[in-house]
């Protein structure tokens, strides 16, 4: 399944957050959305999973307009992982993952063997099968994040939308999580803070700046010294990872002579 | 931005809730049994005690399970059991179930385990509606006037809370709670004024005050049909929406990602709880504690899945109110303690004890 965002503008209140953004996620690819805080990354994702309606433009899954679908129909195609606080209510890990079946079940249909199988499989995929009976609230940040990915997988999505999935995770969990996403082969739109992680795991990147796309394409074409200086106001020196050969950036604050 | 209270965190460590289906079914069965026993016991005790067997016989004959001829009870016993006590006990059951179910639902709506019909102004709105009718003696819709006024008050209060909490087309749980608390103060001031006004006029103030304290004393068979039907239908509908209620607990963004139309669903839940609270407040007055504590206790035992929480909360709320009403009739007999006072007096300390004896659960 492919995602097409065409000329989308988004407003919160009267403020324009995203203006005339067009982006394309080809089938099976991981596309990264990067940009500084407040550049509109999360807002753009919210319109893709039908939380914030665009004031202009279209969002299409293959050829179907996401905003012509019901919330339920959209959730049958799109799995979402966002960070939210649900403190105060206890669910077991298994119950959390089983919520992923919600869009596929009618009100009268009880959970059956098929659902149980999908839930178990999703837990196994994120290596959390041993935690099925544990309380979600007692897990570490990395474990919770993997369970939320399992919940999205239980939706059997054709598109994954991930908002800062590596936030607050130890470095090993960051790598494991993105490795997992890559191994799934599902069309994925992901926002990432860490440019080196974006370089390592995304097939292509879109660079957002003040609500507009200022660069897009292959990793090396987007993460240039000029683009990064313009948007992030830091000096980025490109290099290569000694083992993988991937682009790796080293950052420093610009000296006062070439700063803005 | 989440509404946080230290209480929430302490509850996390109460232990691992029961989760197997078998244990849940056992619990359901045990609660049904306890409720049946409590009903019979509550009908049996009082100023004139009626033997257990007689209670069962009267009910059996009236329901047509036992043949008429087998009756071994006096006409007085029959009147006490069937006319005076049973409707009251059944009403208590309904009120308890309705309050517990609406508390459960509102806690999901607010994503806050401390939410209840009072926090959102629903109970106060219903009170204003009912007190207006009582103090002015209106009877526009005959016997249903009180129920309709209470529901209208509840619905108006909820709608006001919902609209006040709106921001950019969405009502955030924290804003809902804040708007609800603010409106509650306003509405309770209106109620106080109406009571004061009635007391100056003389006459109706005693009935208004008795109603406000929460009482089941006015129960009659003819009053049970409407709330019974509403409670069955609404609870049944909510049970069918259990998955969506669970998804709501995960947060608005996540719930949307799981296919829930959050805004529409939340408004729907508000209207349904207003209906539940309205019909019972009209008959019994605003009874506190039940809507807050019963869902809480049930969650401590079975976790947060609404497929389990809703039926257990309904049964638990029913059981609690039947027992509490019985105590209210016995403690200072021949006087009666209003149900609302008993729930508060026993409920508060019970909950504190529960919080402190963490090992007692699960």
What does this entry look like structurally?
The complex is a heterodimer of chains A (260) and B (362). With 260 residues, chain A is an alpha/beta fold. Chain A has a single domain (3-252), classed as Rossmann fold (3-Layer(aba) Sandwich), CATH 3.40.50. Helices cover 31% and strands 28% of the residues of chain A. Chain A has nine helices and twelve strands. Chain A has helices at residues 41-48, 71-77, 93-98, 113-125, 141-154, 171-184, 195-201, 219-222, 225-232, and strands at residues 3-12, 15-25, 30-34, 56-61, 64-65, 78-81, 159-163, 187-191, 204-209, 212-217, 235-240, 247-252. Chain A has a six-stranded mixed sheet with strand order 6-7-8-3-9-10, sandwiched between helices. In chain A, helix 4 packs across helix 5 (141-154). Chain A is globular and about 60 Å long. Chain A starts with a strand and ends in an 8-residue tail after the last strand. The model of chain A has no long low-confidence stretch (mean pLDDT 92). Chain B is mainly alpha-helical. Chain B has one domain (86-360): ABC transporter involved in vitamin B12 uptake, BtuC. Helices cover 73% and strands 1% of the residues of chain B. Chain B is built from 15 helices and two strands. Chain B has helices at residues 6-12, 21-44, 52-63, 75-110, 122-136, 145-164, 173-201, 205-213, 221-240, 242-249, 252-257, 262-284, 290-302, 306-330, 339-356, and strands spanning 166-167, 170-171. A two-stranded antiparallel ribbon of chain B has the order 1-2. In chain B, a hairpin with a 2-residue loop joins strand 1 (166-167) and strand 2. In chain B, helix 2 packs antiparallel against helix 4, helix 2 (21-44) packs parallel to helix 14 (306-330) and helix 4 (75-110) packs parallel to helix 9 (221-240). The longest helix of chain B has 36 residues, at 75-110. The two termini of chain B are 31 Å apart. The model of chain B is unreliable at 1-15 and 358-362 (pLDDT under 50). At the A-B interface, helix 2 and strand 6 of A face helix 1, helix 10 and helix 11 of B.
């Amino acid at each position: 399944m492919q995602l097409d965002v065409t000329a989308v503008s988004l407003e919160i209140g009267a403020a324009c957050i995203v203006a005339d953004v067009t982006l394309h996620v080809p089938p099976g690819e991981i596309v990264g959305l990067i940009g500084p805080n407040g550049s509109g990354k999360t807002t753009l994702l919210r319109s893709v999973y039908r939380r914030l309606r665009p004031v202009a433009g279209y969002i299409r899954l293959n050829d179907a307009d996401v905003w012509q679908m019901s919330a339920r129909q959209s959730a049958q195609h799109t799995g979402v992982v966002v960070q939210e606080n649900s403190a105060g209510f206890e669910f077991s890990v298994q119950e959390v993952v089983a919520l992923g079946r919600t869009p596929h079940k009618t009100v009268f249909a009880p959970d059956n063997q098929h659902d149980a199988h999908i839930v178990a499989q999703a837990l196994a995929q994120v290596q959390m099968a041993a935690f099925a009976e544990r309380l979600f609230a007692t897990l570490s940040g990395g474990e919770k994040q993997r369970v939320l990915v399992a919940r999205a997988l239980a939706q059997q999505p054709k598109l994954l939308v991930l908002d800062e999935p590596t936030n607050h995770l130890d470095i090993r969990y960051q790598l494991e999580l993105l490795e997992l996403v890559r191994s799934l082969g599902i069309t994925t739109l992901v926002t990432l803070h860490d440019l080196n992680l974006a370089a390592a795991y995304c097939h292509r990147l879109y660079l957002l700046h003040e609500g507009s796309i200022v660069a897009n394409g292959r990793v090396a074409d987007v993460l240039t010294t000029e683009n990064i200086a313009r948007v992030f106001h830091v000096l980025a020196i490109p290099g290569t990872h000694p083992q993988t050969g991937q682009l790796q950036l080293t950052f420093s604050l610009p000296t006062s002579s070439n700063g803005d | 931005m989440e509404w946080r209270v230290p209480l929430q965190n302490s509850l996390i460590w109460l232990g691992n809730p029961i989760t197997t289906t078998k244990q849940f079914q056992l619990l359901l069965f045990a609660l049904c049994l306890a409720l049946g026993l409590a009903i019979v016991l509550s009908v049996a005790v009082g100023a004139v005690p009626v033997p257990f067997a007689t209670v069962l016989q009267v009910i059996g004959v009236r329901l047509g399970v036992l043949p008429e001829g087998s009756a071994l009870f006096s006409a007085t016993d029959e009147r006490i059991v069937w006319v005076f006590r049973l409707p009251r006990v059944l009403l208590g059951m309904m009120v308890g179930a309705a309050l517990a179910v609406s508390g459960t639902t509102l806690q999901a709506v607010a994503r806050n385990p401390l939410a209840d019909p009072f926090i959102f102004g629903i109970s106060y709105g219903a009170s204003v509606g009912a007190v207006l009718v009582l103090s002015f003696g209106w009877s526009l819709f005959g016997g249903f006037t009180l129920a309709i006024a209470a529901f209208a008050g509840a619905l108006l209060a909820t709608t006001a809370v919902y609209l006040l909490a709106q921001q950019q087309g969405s009502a955030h749980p924290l804003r809902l709670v804040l708007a609800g608390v603010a409106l509650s103060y306003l509405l309770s001031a209106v109620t106080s004024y109406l009571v004061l006004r009635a007391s100056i006029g003389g006459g109706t103030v005693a009935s208004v005050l008795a109603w406000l304290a929460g009482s089941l004393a006015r129960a009659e068979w003819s009053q049970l049909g409407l709330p019974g039907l509403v409670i069955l239908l609404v609870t049944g509908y909510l049970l069918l929406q259990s998955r969506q209620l669970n998804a709501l607990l995960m947060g608005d963004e996540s719930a949307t990602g799981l296919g829930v139309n959050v805004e529409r669903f939340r408004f729907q839940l508000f209207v349904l709880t207003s209906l539940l609270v309205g019909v019972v407040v009209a008959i019994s007055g605003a009874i506190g504690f039940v809507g807050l504590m019963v869902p809480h206790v049930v969650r401590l035992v079975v976790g947060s899945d609404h497929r389990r929480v809703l039926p257990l909360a309904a049964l638990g709320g029913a059981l609690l109110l039947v027992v509490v009403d019985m105590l209210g009739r016995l403690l200072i007999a021949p006087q009666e303690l209003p149900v609302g006072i008993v729930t508060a007096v026993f409920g508060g300390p019970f909950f504190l004890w529960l919080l402190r004896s963490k090992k007692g659960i699960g």
